[in-house]
Amino acid sequence: MGELGFEPSRKYLGVVSMLNGNARTWWESIMSNVPSYQLTWDFFKERFKNRFLGERFLRERCQAFKDLVQDTMTVAEYEIQFLELLKYGIGLVSTEKDKYDKFLEGLRIGIRDRVATHHDQVFKDLVDRAKTAEHMEILTASQSSRDGDRDRDKDRWRD
């Protein structure tokens, strides 16, 4: 719901209104023992995560974050995956520099080499530079392919 721009209080009320079954019963028991001013989005999120996600799931997601590399993904796909898993590995990247370094480390070597030379360490700028480098990589590969086709055509005419 954060992606939709809801205020935390609206997120909290919206999510709680959708609970049913065991989750609703569990939350009603929490609400009966906690002062209403403490019933916030962050409070709900933390309690819900601890109750329903479990330690094993959280460890697996944290490991997935540690292991994440771009591999065959586009930079945009890698960014989405990175940001999705970041919430599970937040203790591993507690500063903007850590976040920057982790993302950079996971980029494909050709892209990493093109973007690592910049001195600013702003995550958003790194992502933008990586997308530009990827675009340039695609254009270069496309140009090389066209040049290769042109050379083959020349050879055919010579024979």
TrEMBL record:
Residues 146-159 have a biased composition (Basic and acidic residues). It comes from the Eukaryota. Pfam families: Retrotrans_gag. Residues 138-159 are annotated as: Disordered. InterPro entries: Retrotrans_gag_dom (IPR005162). Residues 15-108 form the Retrotransposon gag domain. This is Retrotransposon gag domain-containing protein. It comes from Hibiscus trionum.
